[in-house]
């Protein structure tokens, strides 16, 4: 018997090499004035950035505003951009075009919602678990998302992760209305990623594929997508790192990241992402790096709770193992991948002092950790983090 479920996805997904050149024809039906968010100044200046602008202009759009995401977004960054767009009258024919990694996409998603949802005085009022719990009642400005890293899958999700400073935490602005109207995944945009971004964002995608697969909220369609994503990503990531221009490897990673976003948006995540949120908000560790360090620890901590699922994943990625050993073979394969990519094994290698380990545990609680295949009491989580230190 199959349990009933919902599956949510962006309005339209366009995948393929050089498909950024079509952005104008997909943005034009959604609005006449483009509000752009770039992940970096360098990207805006490169040929790919200029081609995106040209495509919008050639389709008859006016460039109403261009913003830059300089960091993983804070609530204040969103407030500032949403106010700016509101004053520019973005509700009249505005379409948001976001080109960048998870930070740029999340900033764009949140600002697109808050530029037209003005009941609160700040994004804080709409954040999950803090603030006043206001809802996104008005449809956000339509969003066209073009990811430039193969990692977060933010292009496919219904939430934007924002940092709150007092007390420090990462929280989600979450609404089905945040889903992009069009997503253009052009793997060519990821070729210029520096090595560390390829490694960390690639391991973020792999963490998302695994955690959504074994999640307590796991569902059939996301499981099929996650298995497919992992099959491609595990062999492709080292190739994309060694040979940045390897088209096949970049395509496999961009596809895996997209599938990871679709999977996590519908199935949730787990322990590694819970701790990554705490490492990000309290210690400033970049999201992908935090996930990469935590993934092997989370797999070992969840081994018994999701033994059958890990066995299925071993099979899905083509690992051969004697009967009853496939789950361990899968965990060992992930550990080997992290070693091969020179990811730190322990939290101390991130510069985290021993005395700050315990305070990660309360900050790790929340939506991601709730999806973990088994519940973890705070004392057990602290023990695990101390072992990982
Ligand atoms: Zn992630």
Largest sheet: 6 strands, parallel
**Using only CA atoms, what is the Rg?**
20 Å
Strand content of the residues, in percent?
A: 5-15%
How many helices? The count is 15
Low-confidence stretches: none
Q: Which ligands does the model contain, each kind named once?
A: zinc ion
SSE series: EHEHHEHEHEEEEHHHHHHHHHH
Spatial ordering of strands, largest sheet:
1-8-5-4-2-3
Shape: globular
- Share in helix: 40-55%
Question: Average pLDDT across residues?
Answer: 95
Structural class call reads alpha/beta
Tell me the distance between the termini: 43 Å
Structure summary:
By secondary structure, the chain is α/β, with parallel strands linked by helices. The chain is built from 15 helices and 8 strands.
